């Protein structure tokens, strides 16, 4: 029987640490030997509230004899301070799990631009800022594991455009960072986890009561931990991929390119060509870089 994956002497920053997915991740990482920097600023789905919840989490971690420190900085404005605290306390950063996320529901025409800005600054720009400030440390030590959070909502979820905009942004940038980091053993993946939380309570609120109960029982925060820890582990060999987790399962989301049609010189030709391009049997590839994509286009 293989030995359990160890995170001994590794330092992990987990944002959104006190949430339904973040908390079990912190416990799982710490129990596997990691030093955990548990970051959380707010506790409501819209990012409002008290950061005292993460301090309580760290008290529980330490009471269990685990290594953790609480960080209450706002990732959207103070990512550098989160990195500074990790380096000052533990001397290195090996893992970033960009779990933090907020959502503001509403129809597109009812959402102020400030709502889009607020969600984007936490879910996307905050995550990127944390990576930006941690990257030199990972590069110097020739080691890093980054897990960005995307979402199944990128397949289309109405009244959630603020959230989908930000989570969708992590798909392409994860692939770009993976290419940049490969030479320095910095592996970057994204994951779309599924768990019952305050954030998704409104989404399933219209389901029958028994369906809601089944969702809560199946898609727990804990049921995402094995997949996310695998991506954060030294044993992981994959980078630049988008995975899905939840319900003690793991899947993968692929971004495909369909073979184009050349020589379309009129609108009518293009309209007919669109029907052909929607054919699921048409040749396609899953590019792993812009070079792969351009090479495929050139072959058409």
Automatic annotation (TrEMBL):
Alphabetical list of Gene3D superfamilies matching this protein: NAD(P)-binding Rossmann-like Domain
Keywords recorded for this protein, A-Z: Oxidoreductase
Annotated Pfam families: adh_short (PF00106)
SUPFAM superfamilies with a match to the protein in the record: NAD(P)-binding Rossmann-fold domains
Gene Ontology terms, MF aspect: oxidoreductase activity
Oxidoreductase recorded as keyword: yes
Family annotation (InterPro entries): NAD(P)-bd_dom_sf, Peroxisomal_Beta-Oxidation, SDR_fam
PANTHER family linked: DEHYDROGENASES, SHORT CHAIN (PTHR45024), SCP2 DOMAIN-CONTAINING PROTEIN (PTHR45024:SF2)
Family of this protein: Belongs to the short-chain dehydrogenases/reductases (SDR) family.
Designated name of the protein: Uncharacterized protein
Source organism of the structure: Lipomyces starkeyi NRRL Y-11557
């Amino acid at each position: 029987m293989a030995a359990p994956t160890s995170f001994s002497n590794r330092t992990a920053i987990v944002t959104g640490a006190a949430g339904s997915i973040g908390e079990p991740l912190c416990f799982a990482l710490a129990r596997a030997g990691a030093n955990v920097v548990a970051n959380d600023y707010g506790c409501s789905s819209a990012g409002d509230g008290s950061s005292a919840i993460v301090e309580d989490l760290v008290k529980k971690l330490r009471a269990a004899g685990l290594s953790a420190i609480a960080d209450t900085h706002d990732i959207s404005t103070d990512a550098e301070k989160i990195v500074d605290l990790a380096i000052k306390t533990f001397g290195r950063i090996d893992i970033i799990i960009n779990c933090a996320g907020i959502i503001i529901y509403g129809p597109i025409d009812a959402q102020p631009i400030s709502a889009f800005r607020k969600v984007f600054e936490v879910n996307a720009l905050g995550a990127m800022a944390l990576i930006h400030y941690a990257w030199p440390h990972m590069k110097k030590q020739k080691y890093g594991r980054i897990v960005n959070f995307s979402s199944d909502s990128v397949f289309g979820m109405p009244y959630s455009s603020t959230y989908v905009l930000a989570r969708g942004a992590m798909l392409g940038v994860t692939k770009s960072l993976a290419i940049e980091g490969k030479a320095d053993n910095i592996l970057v993946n994204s994951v779309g986890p599924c768990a019952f939380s305050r954030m998704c309570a409104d989404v399933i609120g219209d389901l029958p009561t028994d369906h809601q109960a089944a969702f809560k029982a199946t898609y727990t925060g804990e049921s995402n931990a094995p997949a996310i820890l695998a991506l954060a582990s030294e044993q992981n060999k994959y980078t630049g991929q988008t995975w899905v987790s939840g319900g003690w399962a793991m899947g993968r989301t692929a971004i495909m390119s369909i073979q184009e049609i050349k020589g379309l010189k009129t609108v009518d030709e293009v309209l007919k060509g669109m029907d052909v391009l929607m054919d699921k049997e048409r040749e396609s590839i899953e590019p792993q870089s812009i070079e792969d994509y351009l090479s495929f286009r050139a072959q058409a």
